[in-house]
User: What shape does this take?
Amino acid sequence: MRHWRTLALGAVLLAGFVLMAFTVPAAPLELEQRWSTWMSDIQAPLLDHLALVFNTVGRGFGRALMTAAPAVVLIVWRRWAALLAYAVAEAGSSLASTVTKDLVDRARPTGSELHPHGASFPSGHVTFAGVTSAALVLLFTAPGSRRRVWWAIALVVTAGMAWSRTYLQVHWLLDVVGGAILGVGVALVVFGAVEVTRRERATPPRPAPAGAGSAPRSAGAS
Assistant: This one.
C-alpha cells in the first residue's frame, strides 16, 4: 500500500506540473518581480559563492559526477532494478524539462551575469536537484521515521538549488517551483511504479476455491 501511495503522490505532482505548464504566464507575476527584487537587494559575497556552488553542481562536470556516483554504487551492489529506475527517472525528468521549455518558451529574467541556455520554465537545475534528491532517499534509506529526516534534507537541498537560481537572476520563482515539482514527481512515479510491479510479480497467485476445478467437468458430463 505504501508504494501505491508513492505512485499516487507522484502522479498528483506531475498533474500539477502539467497544469502549471499550461497556465504559467509569459510575463512574470508581481510576486515573482518582488522576489527577484529582494534577491537583488540581498546580494553579498558569501551568498554569491554559495549560489555559484549550486550552479556548478547542477551543470556540466558537477552534474555528471552527481548523477554517476549513485549509479556506480548501484552497479557495485548489483541492484539492477534500482539502477534502471534511477536511470529512467534522471533521463525522463531531463527530457520532460527540455520539452516543456521548448513548448512554454517563457522568457528568462534579464541582468544576470550568467548566460543560461533555453527558456525559463521549468528550471533544469531544480528539476535535477529534485529528482536526484528524491531518488537518493528512495534508493538508500529504509521506510520509517528516519527516512523523514532524509526527506527533510532532500527538501532543503532542492530548496537551496531553487533559491540559487532566483538569486542568480536566471529564473523566475514559478520556474523553480515547477522544476521542483517535476523532479520529485518523476522520481516518485518511477520508483513507485517499479516497486508496485516488483511486488505484484512476487505475490503468489491465490489458490482456487475447493471444487472450482471440478465444476466445469460436471456440467459437461451432464
